[in-house]
Specification:
binds glycine; binds nicotinamide-adenine-dinucleotide; 11 strands; globular; 14 helices; 7-stranded mixed sheet; two-stranded antiparallel sheet; alpha/beta
């Protein structure tokens, strides 16, 4: 399959995203063609390390790069102050210089944590993203948001720190669990809903992520399309002063559910349900979203086993609607004490809605219980 490239245009911080199958094995040449470095520290997690650490190490060593690595435990719990400190101290023991590259090899957890380490060590070391989940390939590895979690909530301590290059090896998706593929697909659908009605319609017709995954060329096209949409938004609003907030469609609902579930939900699956909720909220607010459109997406999700109700996440969580609404106030997008949501004026046309009445949010949560 053809290698492909997309540039994220950010002036002197612009960077390429490379797409293709098997890129990991060419990582040495591909990275060196883009920037010069002699040492690298790979940060990965224990699942990803099993499959991809050795190939990446070899690819880098083959072009003369000295490589160290650290393996963190897989899972959201690793985006912690403790891991951040531990990684910083351990990397400092290696006496890095300004050109030592920090390479994130993994999903969004590794990317966010490694990126935050890179952004602060020696006031910023060159950072490389090698995303290995669908979610990380369509979203988290692009745009420079890096973060760890705090007691008060997810991603509350972080930075905007762009990578030097993003290397997407589509072959890595072959070892990804179905549930994780589904999670990434939640973010894919989000892109269609927020900004591209034709793309959204095509997704509904393609029959879902597992159908798409059977065709590597189609998978690459879809991942590139999502990255193109994200790159365009990031290029005009890197610091999320306006348009970038639209990428958070479904996220205020999702973050509330994730917080109440103690971050045990898969992020993209929560976003998928959050998007359904955002559609319903938009309908209640009188925008051009119909019940038929909501049902169509529900049916699409149902056919691929994506949660379409809060209860689908499992009976062990004690969902409290008042608490869910309270969590929406705690979200980063809540300002001036009000409830702010990304809504849809129509499919493919997202907008920020400030001061949403809590009763409406409560009604939506209740309807999706
Ligand atoms: P993740 O990083 O936890 O990865 C999911 C699971 O898949 C993990 O168990 C991991 O070990 C495993 N895995 C990863 N790649 C694999 C592969 N190729 N084969 C087999 N197993 C593999 O989760 P995620 O969904 O990638 O990312 C979620 C995180 O991303 C959250 O912390 C979220 O806050 C963050 N996020 C950040 C941004 C951003 O812009 N920075 C955007 C969206 C989400
Ligand atoms: N994932 C949302 C953003 O990068 O802005």
């Amino acid at each position: 399959m053809k290698k492909d490239i997309l540039n994220v245009e950010l002036g002197s911080y612009s960077y390429p995203i490379l797409f293709g199958a098997g890129l990991l094995h060419q990582a040495g040449e591909l990275l060196l063609a883009h920037f010069s470095f002699k040492r690298a520290v790979i940060i990965t997690d224990n699942n990803v390390a099993k499959y991809y650490l050795e190939p990446l190490q070899s690819a880098l060593q083959n072009v003369g790069i000295k490589v160290d690595h650290f393996v963190i435990a897989a899972g959201e719990g690793s985006k912690s102050f403790a891991n951040y400190q531990d990684l910083c101290e351990k990397i400092l023991e290696l006496q890095p210089d300004r050109n030592t590259a920090i390479i994130a090899l993994g999903g969004g957890v590794v990317g966010d944590l490694a990126g935050f380490v890179a952004s602060t060590l020696l006031r910023g070391l060159p950072f490389v993203q090698i995303p290995t989940t669908l979610l990380a390939q369509v979203d988290s590895s692009v745009g420079g948001k890096v973060a760890i979690n705090a007691r008060a909530g997810k991603n509350l301590v972080g930075a905007f720190y762009q990578p030097k290059i993003v290397l997407m090896d589509l072959s890595t998706l072959a070892t990804l669990a179905h549930a994780e593929l589904l999670s990434g697909y939640g973010e894919v659908v989000k892109y269609g809903l927020l900004g591209d009605a034709d793309f959204y319609q095509r997704l509904l017709e393609l029959g879902g992520v597992f159908e798409i995954a059977k065709n590597t060329e189609l998978t690459q096209q879809i991942i590139k399309h999502c990255c193109t949409m994200k790159a365009e938004i990031v290029a005009v609003d890197e610091w999320e002063q306006g348009r970038r907030a639209l990428l958070n469609l479904g996220h205020t609902f999702a973050h509330a559910m994730e917080k109440m579930a103690d971050y045990k939900l898969l992020h993209g699956q929560a976003v998928a349900l959050g998007c359904l909720m955002a559609m319903r909220l938009s309908e209640l607010l009188g925008y051009d979203i119909s019940q038929a459109q909501i049902t169509a997406l529900q049916n699409h999700f149902k056919a691929i086993n994506m949660p379409i109700k809060i209860g689908d996440f499992g009976a062990s969580i004690n969902w409290d609607i008042e608490e869910l609404v309270n969590c929406c106030y705690g979200d980063k997008k809540a300002s001036n004490g009000g409830l702010n949501f990304v809504v849809l004026h129509a499919i493919g046309d997202a907008a920020l809605q400030n001061g949403v009445a809590p009763e409406l949010v409560k009604q939506v949560f209740n309807e999706f219980l």
